[in-house]
Structure formats: C-alpha cells, structure tokens
Amino acid sequence: MNTLRSAGINSILDLSIEADLDGLDLENQSPAEIRSQFNKSADHIADQISTCIETASKMSKSFAAIKITAMGSPLLLQQVSSTLTALESRFKHMDQDKDGKVTKEEFKQLVKMLPSPALNKDQSLDAVVDQLFKEADRDQDGQVDWVDFASTISLNRDETRALFLGATEGAAQIPGLEKEDLDDYKRVLVRMEKLCDQAAKTQTRLMIDAEQTYFQPAIDNVALHLMENYNNKPHVEGPLIFNTYQMYLKDALGRLQQDYVHAQRNGYVLAAKLVRGAYMVSERKRAQELGLSDPICDGIEATHTSYNAGVDFMLGAMTLQKQKLIENKASSQEEDASTLSLKTSPAVLFVASHNKDSVIRTCERMQELDLAPQSGLVMFGQLMGMCDQISYTLGQHGYGIFKYVPYGPIHHVIPYLIRRAQENASVLGGVTVERTLLWEELRSRFVAQKERAQIQAVPSPIVPTGPTTTM
Hints:
This protein is an alpha/beta fold. The protein folds into two domains: 26-57 and 71-224, Recoverin, domain 1, CATH 1.10.238.10; 231-448, TIM Barrel, CATH 3.20.20.220. Helix content is 52%, strand content 11%. The chain has 15 helices and ten strands. Helix 9 links the parallel strand 6 and strand 7. The chain is globular and about 90 Å long. Its cofactor is FAD. It comes from Linnemannia schmuckeri. One of its GO terms (biological process) is L-proline catabolic process to L-glutamate. Keywords: Calcium, FAD, Flavoprotein, Oxidoreductase, Proline metabolism.
C-alpha cells in the first residue's frame, strides 16, 4: 500500500473469499446443521473483514472490498433473489397500462400474491393494503411505481419482512421464505451494519462487489439498504458504501437508473462502481443448461455501449446537479454554493476498467464537464498487476486511481485470480499491449545504458596544469 501510494495510487483491500453453489457439501446434514455451518463461517469472515477495515483505515482514501456471499449462505441468497425477482415480475405483469405504476386495486392484488399477506394475524387484508399503500404513495396521486413499492414492501424492513414468510395455506404466486431464512437474512444485515458502523467511525469506504446473477438481486437489496443508511452521514466526506454494476448484463443500465431514483427519493448519494463483468463464461453456461435467456449483452460492442451509457448517466446526474447549484448561487451567501463536490453531488462514479478506451473517454468527459481529477467525484480502478501503464499514468496526473489488492488463504485467492483472468477477455487482449510496452521500455533502458557506457569509455580531455601562454 505504501509503494502504491508513493506513485499516487490508492488501495482497495480485497479479502478474496466468496461462495457459490458449486462444490457445496450438503449431504448427510440437516437444514439446521447447514444453517449453523454457514452462520459460523460468515461470523468468522466478518471478523476478518473487520481487521481488513482496520488495516485500510491506517491509510486515508483506502477501501475495503466485501463479497455478500461470504456474509451468509449462498443458498439463502439464491432463495432471496428468486423471491425478489418474482415480486418485480408480478409487479410488471400487474401494471396493465405499462406506465410503470400500479393503482391501489392492483397494489392490493400484489399484496394478495405475497406468501403471507398480513402484518399480523388480527389484521385484515384491506387494513394491510390501506396502511402500506398510504406509505408507498408518497406524492398521493393514487399510484405507486416499483421504486416506492419495493421500498415499502421490503425484506430490509422489520415491519414488512413477515409478508415474505412461507404460506401455510394455498400456493402463493411469489415464493416465500422459511422463518429460519428470514432470521438468517436479518443476520446478514446485522453483520453488514456492524461493519458499516466500523467503517463510518474510521472513515473507511466499503466496496460491495457484484457476483453471479442468481445472487445479485439479494446483493443489490442489501447494498441499497446500506447506502440509504450510510451514504447520508454529515460527518463523513462523501459516500461510504459503493455498489457494483456489471454492465455486460442487459438489464444493468436500467437497474443503475432505477437505483439512482431510489437514492434521490430517499436522500442519499448513489455511489456506483461500473465494471464490465467477470462471470461471462459461467453465466452463459448456466443459462444454456437451464434453458434461460442469455443475461449478457450480445457481443463486445454491445457491452462497450452499455458501459459507456452507464458512465454517461452518472456523469449526467452530476452535470444536472452542477447546473442547479449554479442557478441557486444567486440566492446563496456561501462562496462555494455553485461548486460540485462530495458534499453536494448526488452521485459518485468509480470506473473499474482495464479498457484503455473507457478510461480515456471518461477523462475526456470529465474535462468537458469541468470535473477536476482531484474532486473525488470520479475514480478509477484496476486489479493489482494488471494494466499498470494505465494506473500509474492516472496517478501521475492526479486522478483518483485505486488498485484492488487481493489477499487471503491461497486456496481462495488463486482460483479468484484465475477466474478474473479467464473470464475478462479485455484483460487477456490487453496483455499483448502490455508486453509490447514492457519490451519497448526495456529496449529504451538498454539503449540508454549502452549510450552511457560509450560516453564513459571516451578518454577525458587532458587539462594542462602548468602556466599557459596567451598569444
């Protein structure tokens, strides 16, 4: 970390422990034993991440990375993701006129589809609907969109979590969760909140990594909950929690835009790290095996377009805010009222890319929009040991540049790095460029060294020491 900092590069400490469904040994174990095993493992890893946060806090501007699959059972996260996906699907189906909103009657039908459409055994369905719809209909126009619906009927809220409890009668159209699952999901939130409290106290930012699509809805649900609660702290300069968006997914841009709306309505800063994605091979294989539609963009150019659109959207949000600040400057007595900063921006962007064109394009857009490299509103990142020519150049020019520094048990770290190398085609393509640059640098140094040796080999002119005669 000290070596990187000397070159103007900051660090993201990455405890490279994640979980997947493959390789889970669940035979000869009861459900209670499986839950106990995962909870013990998650508590242990949370302690390790706490140490990671403590280490990162010793150097300002550093991050600690977190993988939510290490904070609970991957089986639980898959089940939660299935429930959330089904809920959004039913919402879209219920939206008959496709205006993105549902009426109170449609809202009622959605509540009826929940596994347990009652907040308590003594409350009628109509009473539940009246209470929840009033809360969700913020502008009181008699309609509710998905953002407000999902904010109101949420697994993150103690008041509504019971609505997702598995139905005891009939067949719910939205899959429910067992009480033990709801308890374990709450434990995931508690672990993360404890780590966020530590991060807030030490002024250390947390990067929530994206993972496989069958976990991502649950991960995003946790991330939004944390951003809503920690990206609005007045004593912390800038957002504390960053969520990651894999822009090679067809729905990534829509989710990014939707989350920005959620942030605006709930009064917090959306901090987004944009990556292309690292699970392309496994995601497409799974989709083919299960007969699902391919979630990944059709071709590299479509992925580039999606990535650029994500960058433009985030920069556009900053630009709109800057214009508002300028318009309001006349009515403000503060000298920096029109300055876009970490305290005034509604969004912060982290461009995590090994693609040279993406980095150059973002830098050019920053210059066009008059966003200073040192503002902290736009940052860049690459994996340690990859694309160093980009990282060090950005560091030399004062941009916020970070290196992911993976560490942990070798049997976790090596597979993690291999996956990153295998599944990131842009990195593999860049190896040829890096090799060429390294060779040119070595040749340049060799030639320079040879020229210095030749100069040193030339005899020095003899300088007379006796008296001289002037003619």
